[in-house]
Each structure stands twice: as C-alpha cells, then as structure tokens.
Amino acid sequence: MHNTKTDNNMDELLLIEAVERYINGDMTPKEQVFFEEIRKNNPTIDQMIVEHTFLYHELTKQANIKAYKHSLYEVENKLSEEGFISKAKLYSKAKVVFFWKKYKRNIAVAASIAGLVSIATTILISSYNNKLGNSNITVLMAKIDNTAKKVDQLDKAITANPSIQKNPSPDYRATGFLIDGNGFILTNAHVVNRMKNIYVENKEGVYFAAQTIYTDENTDLAILKINDISYKTIYNLPYSINKKNSNLGEQIFTLGYPRNEIVYGEGYVSAKSGNEGDSTAYQVSVSVNPGNSGGPVLNNKGEIIGIITSKNSVADGVVFAAKSKNIYSLIEAFKKADNNATIIKLPTSNSLKGFDREQQVKKMENFVFMVVGN
C-alpha cells in the first residue's frame, strides 16, 4: 500500500541531506552545479539554505564547546588518577551539580536549535511542494481607499496653485528617497506606472506635487522630480550610494511607508542575486509590507546598497531589492535619452558612518518620502 506520509518524510530527509552536503562541500562538481541551479530558480530553497547554514553553524559551535569541556573533564580525570587532584574534591556534590548545570545548558541550546531546524525545514519544504511552479512575487504597493474625497477637484486645485498645502486623496502608497536635494526622488517603476497624478509627502505630513521624468523597467527603478514651488532645496544628503556589491550576510536596515508614518526594519543580505538569479538585485531578509516599494536599503555605514522592490508571497522574509549601482546606470541612461536633462548630482559624502543606528535613522527620516498617487 502506498504511504504518502512516508514518502513525504523521505523527501524531507533527502532534501535536508542534500543541503548539509552542499554546506559541507561534499557534493561532486556536477551535483553542486545542479543544486545551485535549483537554488537560483527557487527562493524558498535558497532561503532554506541560508537559514540552515546559520543553524548548522550554531550546532557546530555548541558541539565544539561540548567537545572542549569533555576534553577538560578527561584531563581532570587523568590528573586525579595520577594524584595531582583530589578525587574526592573532583567528584564532590558541588562539583557534580556545577558540571550538570553547565552541560544541561549546552544540551538545551543544542536541542532547541535542532528543533528549530526541524520546524523550519518542514514548513519550507511543505511550502515548496505546494507552490512550486506558481508565480509568488508580490510588489509592495499599498492600495488606499478614498471613496469619501473628490480626487479630480483637488488635482485641479493643486495643478493651478502648487503651493496649496492640502492633502490629496491617493489610490496607492509607496516609498521614495532623495538622490539629489533639488527634488529628485528615486522609487520603483511599478509604483509610478500605476499613477497618473503623483505626490510625495515628507515626515511632517506636507505634500508636494511631483512627476516622473525617467523609468527603467529592467531594474524596476524610476526618477521623480518635485515640481512644487513650495519645495525648498535640501543640501548635503547624509548618505552615499554604494557602487559595489554587498557581501552575503551583511547587516542592513530600511525605512518605508507601509503605514501613514515611517517604519523601520532591519535584516541581512541573504543572496547576491534576486528572483530567478537576477544579477541586478539582491535577496534580503527583512520584514516588509505593501507600501515599502521604493524604500532605501542601507548598511551599517549608512551607505545605500539597494531599493526594495518586491517579496516572495510564499516564503516569509524573502524580499528582493534592486542593487544601488543600478542608480548610476539609470542616471546615465536618463542623460542619453534627454539632451536637455537637468544634471542630477548623486550624494558622494557620508555623514552617517560612525553613528549608532538610532541616530542614523533620525538623520535619514527627513530624506525618505511617502509616494502617493491616483
């Protein structure tokens, strides 16, 4: 009789064994190429490898600690047999209780980590088996319900007099950030493609009219220009834009507008490529929600390394971010496409380096905008 449960358990064990062999470098060259192709094409498996690597290293660390303490115990035992240490003292009640407490803690930690490996693996494999072959990429725009306000009338009023400080009634919400203090904002192409009328809101809740001046569908990036006469130029942006690739495991944080107020998130770079091996993007592990599209991703030095674009709707924490070096090629393409294009001066100095995270966030808040439109 066919036992489905047994087959699933065997599949799980085989996949776990393959991941461990991959991490330990025990695969043949052909097996490694095949497995890396699977990892590149399936973010769930890729995320599983990242998390399993971390947990495997923790288990190894605990095993090394236990082995080291066992060696100490063997040395003590030998010294006691040779008369250098009192055997009664070594095996006193206090000594036994001390050793038990120390080993009990290590065993508990190792058991907890092993449990987490089992739970995470079961969930990820179940998700993989059920969703394989489906499109699981979700863009991070927030849909806003504004049935009570007259959008057209407000649009006409702001167009006629851009200095009017009224709140527009948008249909969508996302995030953008300044790349030039003269009012040039970077966001996602999929954000502005859904907006006919665009506004950006600063931390104080003041809206400015803006327009799209250039988009790139390949990298999902777009440049906005604030054309509101009430906007005042901002000098000396505190962050720089990284031209190099970030390292696997690099700590990152992001700011965005999944709500009507700015929200902070932190995580790490989990893969050097994006969805289906996209070399123009990273996979990052960070908590995001609709509205985070276009948000900046920064490292501990306060350098922008990426721009949030989308997430995997099946695997938690699998988020994709366009690499920051795409911004430089975006600017060059904009210049070539428009001979009369205004020169955009990207920030080159970095005043966030050396500050703690709380201070970095405070300095960043003024340069990250909510992007809304209808």
In short:
This protein is an alpha+beta fold. Helix content is 40%, strand content 23%.
Could you characterize what this model shows?
- The protein has 374 residues and is an alpha+beta fold.
- The protein has 2 domains: 4-131; 136-374, Thrombin, subunit H (Beta Barrel), CATH 2.40.10.
- Helices cover 40% and strands 23% of the residues.
- The chain is built from 9 helices and 15 strands.
- It has a 6-stranded antiparallel β-barrel. Strands 3-4-7-6-5-15 form a 6-stranded antiparallel barrel.
- Helix 2 crosses helix 3 (43-81).
- It is elongated and about 90 Å long.
- The N and C termini lie far apart (59 Å).
Keywords, separated by commas or semicolons:
374 residues, alpha+beta, Thrombin, subunit H, 2 domains, six-stranded antiparallel barrel, six-stranded antiparallel β-barrel, 9 helices, 15 strands, elongated
